[in-house]
Structure of Recombination protein RecR:
Amino acid sequence: MQYPEPIAKLIDSYMRLPGVGNKTATRLAFFTIDMDQESVDGFADALIAAKKDLHYCSICGNITDVDPCEIDRDPTRDQSTVLVVEQVKDVMSIDRMNEYHGLYHVLHGVLSPSEGKGPEDLNIESLIKRLQTNDAIKEVIIATNATPEGEGTAMYLARLIKPAGIKVTRLAYGLAVGSDIEYADEMTLLKAVEGRTEI
Ligand SMILES: [Zn+2]
């Protein structure tokens, strides 16, 4: 027998999530059906609001419900340093340490010739514009992951930014080669920021 269509649709929806196969999706679908109406409504509202109310900050590319984002609107942050990361999640990882108090810039990926991903596919143009129009920025810390693509992107950005007389540094890798910032523990990240070196 086949599942009634609403259940089949729900299973199908859960299966679009990363790492969720048919078995887990089926379990989640039946769990959802057993939830009370209020909880299901709240769940659905949260899903819709997250997509509708969030967008990328026009300055830094971080995810936000107000533009510019909270970090860019905070005058107590060190306006002289911009830390460049691959993903929004990396901003959270680094800011959680409460050790870095400067600004961020999110690339939304890395250069990857094999996947046909060039500079125009990343949030690089707005970084350059930002550096050109904001004299307060004295240092750009490149915190892309320690993967070949992350390294290549760091070198590309350094070549692009250095002629403007802005100091370009790279996180000290204490972070193991091939590792993602997202999974690094706080101590490792802290050391990486402290021991950054000029490139
Ligand atoms: Zn921002």
Notes: Residues 37-53 form the longest helix (17 residues).
